[in-house]
Amino acid sequence: MIKKNISFLLILLLSAGMLVGKEKAVQLKKLKYTDIGNPALAGSAEIMKDGISITAGGADVWGIKDEFGFSYFEQTGDFDLVARIESLTAPHLYTKAGLMAREQLSDNSRHIFFQVFPNNNLRNKNNGGYEFQYRVEQAGEMKANYPAKFDGTPEFPVNYPNTWIRLKRAGNEFTGYFSADGKSWIAFTAFSMELSKKVYLGLAVTSHNTKESATAVFRNISMFK
Question: d(Cα 223, Cα 167) in Å, to the nearest integer?
Answer without folding.
Answer: 10
